[in-house]
Structure formats: C-alpha cells, structure tokens
Amino acid sequence: MVDTKVKIKDLVFENPVITASGTFGYGLEYSDLIDINRLGGIVVKATTAQPRQGNPYPRMAETSMGMLNAVGLQNKGIDYFVKEIYPAIKSFKTNIIANVSGSTIEEYVAVAERINELENIPAIELNISCPNVKQGGMAFGTNCHSAKEITSAIRKVYHKTLIVKLSPNVTDIAEIALAVEDGGADSVSLINTLLGMAIDTETRKPVLSTITGGLSGPAVKPVALRMVWQVAKAVKIPVIGLGGICSAKDAIEFLIAGATAIQVGTANFIDPQITIKIIDGIENYLQQHNLKSVRELIGSLNY
Amino acid sequence: MPANKFINDFTIVSNISFSDHTFILKLLAPEPLPEMFPGQFVQVLVKNSAATFLRRPFSIHNVDYLNNTISLLIKRIGNGTNSLFNLKAGENLNLIYPLGKGFTLPSNDNVLLVGGGCGVAPLLFLSKYLYKKGIKQTILIGGRNQSDIIETNEYQKFGKLLITTDDGSCGEKGFVINHPVFNETPSKFSKIYTCGPEAMMKAVARYAKIQSIDCEVSLENTMACGIGACLCCVVNTTEGNRCVCTEGPVFNINELTEW
Q: Is A211 helix (H, G, I), strand (E, B) or coil?
C-alpha cells in the first residue's frame, strides 16, 4: 500500500485530491455517481452572509478546451447553509471545506464566525478571487494590502485551518501569496478563474450577461502550473494547486511543481467520476515509480 | 429527494437519419434502465470533437424498457452534434441519466402537445406516456418543411396528429402558432405541453395565458454539469434563479417571470 496522506497545517487528507468550489455543489449532487468518502476533501459552493441570486443568464460560455462562467456567487446564504446543508453533509467521511465569500470584510467575518462553530468543517477556503461580483470578491485578492488585511481579520475569528484562494488576475501572484501568509493563512489555493470573454459574432454581443467571466478548464492548466510553481517557491505554507486538472498526470504535475494537494474543478462536469480516477492514477504512479509516499513528489521538480 | 442518477457507457444499436440534419440514436443500456419520465434528459459525452468540451444535454425521446434502450432525437447544429451524427452501431456513448424533472400529468382529460423542429424530441415519450395513462391528446408538430416532420405514424397511435410546415410541404402552411387549433374559443384543452424554439414556446404560452390553460414548457438553457452543481443554466422564476437542469427543464409558465 502506498501512502497518499498529505497535511495542511494539522489537517490530514487521506489523499491529495479535493473537489474545487462551485464545481461539485455540496457533494450531494455527485453522491449517486461516486463514493464521496474516497475524496481527500470537498470544497463546497461559496457561502455569503445573505442569500444571493447571482448574475442573470447567460452565465456560461464553452470555449476551446475550457469554459467561461459568470455565476456570481449564487447561494442561499449562511443561515440556510447551517440549517439545511450542513446536517446533510456533515457525516461525509472526507474533509469538508467551506468556501467563504462576501462584499465587505465584515461580511466575510460574519460567515467565518458561523462556520467556526460547525464541528465537522475543519477548514475554510477564503474566496478573495471571484471575478464575477461587482463588490468584494477578486477586489480583495488583487492587492497585497487588502489581501493581508482580510486574511488577518478572518484569522482573528477563525481558529481552524485557513486556506486563502488566490486570483491569477494579478501581475505577481507570489507577492499576494506572501501577503496572505503574513496575514496568518495556513495555506493558499490557486488559481481561481482567469478573467476572459467571448463574443457572438452573429449578434456582435458578448455571450455572457456580465460581458466578462472566469475561464477554467484545461485551457488554463499551463498558467496555473506556472503560478503554483512560483508561489510554492515563495511561501513556507503548503500550496493547493488547481486549474484545468483533468487526469492523474495533470495532478502529479502540480504536486511536482510544489503543490501539497490539488483540486479538481471543471473536469467534474465532463466526467463526474474523474476524481476517483485521479486518486487511483496517483496510487498507480507511486507504485510504478517505487515511491512509498505521495509526499516524496511534492516540490520534486528537477531543474 | 430526486431519484437516483447513473453514469454508464451505452452501446449504439442504430443511428437512423431522417434527413441531412435530423437523426435518432437508439442506445442499449448495460444494466436495467431505471424508471424515467417524459421531459427528463441525459448528458452525453461527445468524443472525437476537439471543439466540444462539455457534455451535451438531450431530451429522452423514447424508452423501451423491454429491450432496455433509450432513443435520442438530435439535430445537427454544431461540432458536437455533427460528431454524434457520424456514430455507427456498435460504438459506445457515455451518458449521465436520467436528469431533471419531467412534465406533470394534467388534472383533466384532453391535452395539447406542441412541438417545433427538434423540440418534438421529448414529446413522443410524453405522448406515449399520456396514452398509457388514458389521457386524450392532440399532438401538433411543426417544421420548416416535410423533412422535419418525422415519426408521424408513432404519434397517430397515441392521439390526433396535426402538422404545420413553414413552406406548406406537409400539413397546414405556416408556423405552429398559426394552426387553426388555436382559433377555437374557448379552447377545449385542459393543458398544453410545449417544446421547441423559444419564440414558438412563448407564443404558445401567451395563448395558454389568455385562455387560462395550464401550460408546461421544456427549456434548453446552456448548461455545463447537468446535475445542479455549476449553477450556469438558471432561469428567472417566481422563486428567484433556479437551475433548469435540476428544477426543470420543464417549468409551468406561471413560475417563469419573463414569460
């Protein structure tokens, strides 16, 4: 048996494969199709203080080897999450990570305080990188000062594992990563979606109601891999890599680049069972390469 | 709670073209099919098409529990459907099924089904289902020309069939909404089910509202996951934005704020 365990601060993951926020619902949507308990973790759909309707349709455009989305954090708010969602998911035997978002620092703090009380949620992913909302979201994550400020504010009220999800829409993502590390983050996850757009040439109108949206899928993988490598070199805290991962090989590339764990996002839409295939594929790779632990791969890039 | 969903490789039993653009894939399931309802859909994984990144949703056109097959009626529109058009018997197709909520039964007898173009896809299954429930029905299908009007003998088994074509090559000339059946006042129908181009469905919905007839429409918003995870396919309803994939694709027109 190979050892696939990894650790983010004190939190142990049975394997490094986690589902990305906004691509896996609350896990319940997929529970007919895969064994949720085999996953290293699930990052559930972003939660805000108040219910949000998100952006108007159309919110999605298929692009070459990827897709743009402009959902805009549609969710039923923290009260609904605590009362209705949490009881349905708390018995999953995997790390359930809450993705927290908002428009103001106060809103983020209010949500984090509520999540802190939920026994079976051992970590938060702080979403300071959503490109699809007018206020907050990415605005916090594209500036070192505000990224550190919001991380510090959450650190004061949240006592479990704090992961901060970074935006790639910056000139130097390593600087932002260092800022949130300084602010007290236990880990960073990257990348959120890349800002993009699509145009209908017949109508000359933007495909998305919001004009721009976030690009995800295999099209972004090389960019994500490069950023994970840059950030992993810069910070001391563990890095969670994501962006276009569709196979065990993709996942292993991110581990070699320096990621301690990885997230699978858009690929869940195409193959709902992809995470299980990636977990199996990583185990096979370790066996074939005579590696006892997946940890031997992390940051093992030869250059 | 919604019924269970499954993911499996189906084997193509036949791929029959009715014209250069419309075809029906008959697919054999590798295990006994679960009970499925008219209006539900499947998410198809399209291989051999580099430009097709996401799965493609298709209404369930017909189900044969005895032979364990389902049929999909598809129109060639882009790269994905073009790739499906070229599939041969014996090849595999990966499906997530059955998805979404289907049409609901009427509270009274005598219903009207209205389908336009490829929007007739879910109506054959619905027509068969209503027939088995003993509900009297009229089926109105419309197309651009005769080549769009297929499987007429099937519908005729289940109810009274009416046809329109834009060029008059089959049935009444004109759009479905111009058919004389809509001139009858008061309407004798207790419920209207419709699927097709949005402009057609909206015209049918307007008629239903004026006549105070219960009306269900099947929407086809672009979607990514098909199972309620990505929240991309929403429609504005009286209860806010709701996913077409899990809370539809069939909606009562009274739920749709922009209809």
A: coil
Best A26, A59, A80, A84 member to test B by mutation, with max B CBs in 10 Å, is A59
Is A57 in contact with B236 (Cβ distance < 8 A)? Answer: yes
A57 touches chain B (CB under 8 A): yes
Q: What percent of chain B has pLDDT over 90?
A: 92
Is the CB of A202 inside 8 Å of chain B's CB atoms? no
**The domain that contains B64 carries what CATH number?**
2.40.30.10
Q: Which domains does chain A have, with CATH numbers?
A: 6-55+74-194+216-296 (3.20.20.70)
Kindly state whether residues B136 and B193 are assigned to the same domain: yes
Among B30, B18, B49, residue whose Cα is nearest residue B141: B18
- Residue in B4, B241, B247 to test binding to A, most A beta-carbons within 10 Å: B241
Query: Is the model's pLDDT at B171 over the cut of 50?
Result: yes
- By Cβ distance, the residue of A54, A59, A269 closest to B54 is A269
Catalytic residue among A18, A20, A130, A234: A130
- Rounded CA separation A300/A283 (Å): 17
pLDDT band at A217 (very low <50, low <70, confident <90, very high): very high
State whether residue A59 sits within 8 Å of chain B by CB: yes
Query: Looking at the partner chain, which of A23, A74, A217 has a beta carbon nearest the beta carbon of B53?
Result: A217
Q: Domain of B49?
A: 6-99
The amino acid at A42: I
**Same domain, residue pair B64 and B130:** no
Give the DSSP letter string of A68-84: EE-----B-HHHHIIII
* Same-domain check for residues B163 and B205: yes
Could you give the ipTM of this predicted complex? Answer: 0.94
DSSP H or E segment with residue B210: helix B198-210
Residue B152 to chain A, least CA–CA distance (Å): 35
Mark whether A130 is an active-site residue: yes
Distance CA A90, CA A100 (A): 17
How many structural domains does chain B have? 2
